[in-house]
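[INFO] parsing input record for Myb-like domain-containing protein
[DEBUG] input buffer:
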Amino acid sequence: MNTDRTCNNSFWTKEEDKIFENTLATKEDNNNLLEEMAKEFLKKSANDIKDHYNILIEDISSIKSGYVPLTNYPEMQN
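[DEBUG] output buffer:
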């Protein structure tokens, strides 16, 4: 996630990012996704959550379109 765009008076920790991503993954089919997110992040506003979601979607789009190269991790040996 691009930290330059995590503004709007809202800072997201790595732990919050992980909770955000897990909630999104497990509740993505929920019609009330924003409400589910709000339950997890009592100190975040609805706009903070929406902005964070939109940034994630932009990042995924950039990766899929090839604008952001994937990290080439070395292969692990057994």
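[INFO] DSSP finds three helices and no strands in the chain.
[INFO] shutting down worker
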